[in-house]
Amino acid sequence: MVRMLRPLTRAVTYTRWLHIVVAIVWPSLWLFIEEAWWTQVTAAVLLGLAGLLPIARVVEAFQARLLLIGRRQDGESEEIVTTPSATWADRGRTVVWLEARLCLGWTVAHLSVQLPLLAIDLLTTGLGLGPLADGFVKVGENRWWHAVLAPVPLLLFAVVVVWSGHFVTALAKRLLGPSPAERMAALEERTDQLLERTRIARELHDSIGHALTVAVVQAGAARAAGDPDFTDRALVAIEETGRAALEDLERVLGVLRESQKPVSSRPTLADADRLLESARTSGAKVDAEVTGPVDAVPGPVSREGYRILQEALTNVLRHAGAVPVRVRVDVTGDTLVLAIRNPLTEPVPGPGRGSGLRGIRERAALLGGLARTGPDDGDWQVHAELPLS
Q1: Which of 61, 166, 177, 324 has the maximum number of C-beta atoms within 10 A of its C-beta?
Q2: Sequential DSSP letters for 206-242
Q3: Whether the predicted model's global pTM rises above the 0.90 cut
Q4: Which has more confidence, 191 or 73?
Q5: Residue 209 burial (C-beta neighbours within 10 Å; 0-12, 13-18, 19+)
Q6: What CA–CA distance (Å, rounded) separates 13 from 28?
Q7: DSSP per-residue string spanning 82-149
Q8: Model pLDDT for residues 242-258, shown as the tens digit of each residue
Q9: pLDDT tens profile 299-332
């Protein structure tokens, strides 16, 4: 019983009822001109013509959001859109919505008046006072059992209020909701946002992770060496790496603050010398071989290639330490090849450890390329092939 009465305690139940009844306010004004059938037909025709205006969907959608689903104008809703009608199909749905709302408004308003009047008649005739109201159901005789039936019209009135609200809300979501084209556009926008967030997460992981790894390795090596000259060189390397990481962090935070601005000045393979020198100052013996026109590599490929190289060197410093590293950057034909190899100094970790290697494979896959990571003839290798076109 409590569950059945719960909708009557919600404010949205009555705002929905208000939304339905308000639909007949201005058509009812025609009754003051002349109470004839043609006045209501004229009102319905004018309402249909108004629905053909693109702005009509905006007005109706704002009302529906606020009164039917309890969401304000500035709230986001995937169920009811507040954009003007873009196609004739959208205009047609708006017209159907306006006419259906008008018909439903007449019905609900009529029942909202007549059912309480019927309850009053039943109560007064049950008490022997005779009918006091003039409802659509005539109660002409005084019968004691009429008083027992008096609550029934009120229960029906409650049912009308609740279920008409559910019906008009479902109808609004159907007729004022997004079209297939709008759903596709929203899905594409959401996908772009998710891809941008994933890319920013990878940027932070690669840049900050590399800087912290270099700083930790340099600090540990300086403490173990006990050489003032080596300590000075280590502090210089930590300072330079930290400054570069701060620049990357500021660039990424700028993207987050102003989402409409594209990322600019991201490092490319032309800046790979900075990475190689940073690894060397951390103790790794880096043997680099760069062949082909690296400067001519397209921007997106060059930037992702830089990040793949950065993550590979970071993993070497983090897991292998000061070991010989062979780096090969080769631009031949329409392919960029990145190959980083180093001796294995510890057992190969199990799958699922960290997100760096997964990020390398994701970067390559997004560009239509391929990346392999794992042990190979006693070495650990990172091998990526990225198409230039």
Answers
A1: 61
A2: HHHHHHHHHHHHHHHHHHHH--HHHHHHHHHHHHHHH
A3: no
A4: 191
A5: buried
A6: 24
A7: -S---SHHHHHHHHHHHHHHHHHHHHHHHHHHHHHHHHHHHHHHHTTS---S--SS---S--TTHHHH
A8: 777 776 676 666 655 55
A9: 888 888 888 898 888 888 777 777 889 999 999 8
> At a CB cut-off of 8 Å and minimum separation 6, what does 307 contact?
202, 203, 206, 359, 363
Pick the more confident residue, 98 or 266: 98
Helices marked H in the chain: 2-5, 11-22, 25-28, 37-51, 54-67, 88-126, 146-149, 151-175, 180-225, 228-257, 272-281, 299-315, 356-366
Residue 232 has which token pair?
């000075």
- Structure token pair of residue 360: 């390398």
| Residue extents of the structural domains in the chain | 2-178, 201-387
In angstroms, the CA 366 to CA 195 distance is 10
Write out the two tokens for 273.
């010398």
Q: Say which CATH topology domain 201-387 has.
A: Heat Shock Protein 90 (3.30.565)
Which tokens go with 205?
A: 């992981």
Rounded-to-integer distance, Cα 331 and Cα 291, Å: 6
Six-digit token string for 316: 């070497």
